[in-house]
Design brief:
Layout: E1 4-8, H1 15-28, E2 33-37, E3 48-50, E4 56-58, E5 60-61, H2 62-66, H3 70-73, E6 78-81, H4 89-100, E7 106-110, H5 121-129, E8 132-135, E9 148-152, E10 158-159, E11 173-176, H6 178-183
Parallel strand pairs: 1-7, 1-8, 2-5, 2-6, 6-7
Antiparallel strand pairs: 3-4, 9-10, 9-11
Length: 195
């Protein structure tokens, strides 16, 4: 019986690397896994999922997956969605349809909350609808578990206001524990110029 998984973590927790490794595991066993991401995520070029450690693999955009026929979708042993926080409520409900009606397992990887501590719409819906929810862990500079995403500017100042979606990676975001996120403390060794 297929299930909908939501695997979330803070920035730098290797969510994309985990998604790419899951895809590789299916391929290694002779099964197809469809890699998908929202069209909004264009940081790493078109039709590509990248991880910070250098893993990469071609993908389709979510709207392209929705245009596939039932037969084309069912040729996949699993569907893996990266950057799932950018999904809409309707797109998450489409994933529920794939799991419940077509019996295709779906694994979603993404952030739980934004830099202000607010849930992303896609993450909210996945937290509500997922059969299994797992945290992909990483650590703050202090060694505690990082659960918050801090956005910082070119001066290293932690921002708490602004648009919810500003695409970036290590050049704009860092995972912090709750205490250091609330303080806006990027750590004694943080060097914005080294980025």
């Amino acid at each position: 019986m297929a299930q909908l998984y939501f695997k979330y973590g803070a920035m730098g927790s290797s969510k994309s690397a985990n998604a790419l490794m899951a895809r590789f595991n299916y391929e290694e066993r002779g099964q197809k896994a469809l890699m998908v991401k929202p069209r909004l995520d264009a940081r790493d070029g078109e039709h590509m999922v990248y991880s910070r450690i250098g893993l990469k693999y071609p993908c389709v955009y979510f709207d392209e997956m929705q245009a596939l026929t039932i037969m084309e979708l069912q040729q996949n042993a699993c569907i893996i969605v990266d950057e799932a926080q950018f999904l809409t409520r309707e797109e998450v409900m489409y994933l529920v349809y794939l799991v419940d009606d077509l019996d295709i397992p779906v694994m979603c990887y993404g952030l739980r909350a934004d830099f202000k501590g607010d849930l992303f719409p896609g993450s909210y819906q996945l937290l509500v609808m997922a059969d299994k929810i797992e945290e992909v862990k990483t650590i703050c500079w202090c060694g505690k578990k990082a659960t918050f995403n801090a956005r910082f500017d070119e001066n290293g100042t932690v921002l708490k206001e602004g648009e919810q979606v500003v695409l970036g990676a290590n050049d704009k975001y860092i995972g912090l524990c709750r205490r250091h996120w609330m303080e806006g403390n990027l750590g004694p060794d943080f060097d914005v110029e080294a980025l």
